[in-house]
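Incident log, entry 3
Record: Histidine triad (HIT) nucleotide-binding protein (144 residues)
Problem: checksum mismatch between cached and fresh output.
Input:
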Amino acid sequence: MTDCIFCKIKDQEIPNYKVYEDDKVYAFLDMSQVTQGHTLLIPKRHVSDIFEYDKQLATDLSTRLPKIAQALRTAFPEIEGLNIINNNGEVAYQSVFHSHIHLIPRYGKDDDFSMHFGDHSEQWTQDEMTETAQKIKVQVNGDV
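Fresh output:
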């Protein structure tokens, strides 16, 4: 893809702060630096989002993810936790349409990053939850 900012970054057409590269993935510091060490991990092959992954691409990214996470913790021993975020689609806050995974180090509860998931459990009956799970199972495993 010729107009993709992340493709240009991995191809060194745009200056960036690379932290890792191999034949399948590229990792670099996010310019926003939500917290120190905020890193993006991208596949070198251009795909827009998780819905375009095949099994091999998922394996390529997921096997490199711990390596980057462990490097962050070693580089910054004061890290207390790590958010790993992958947004897919505009409605899910994806702003660059080259799939990427955010690794956001957490240094404490007051490090200016938060995520909030409300409890919506009362909105769904047990039958609705069972139906929802069944719809997904069928797609994952075939007719069960």
